[in-house]
Amino acid sequence: MPGAGTIQPCTVAPPQAHARTIHIRLFAAKTLAIVVVLCAIVTGHTYEPGGLVDFSIESVGLMLLIVGALGRVWSAAFISGKKSKMLVCVGPYSMTRNPLYFFSFLSWVGVGLSFGALTLAFVLAIVFLVTHLHTISQEEEFLHGRFGNDWEEYVCTVPRFFPRIRSMRGTPNGSFEAVPFTRVIGESALIMLAYVGTQFIEYLHAQHVIPVYLTLP
Question: The domain that contains 128 carries what CATH number?
Answer without folding.
Answer: 1.20.120
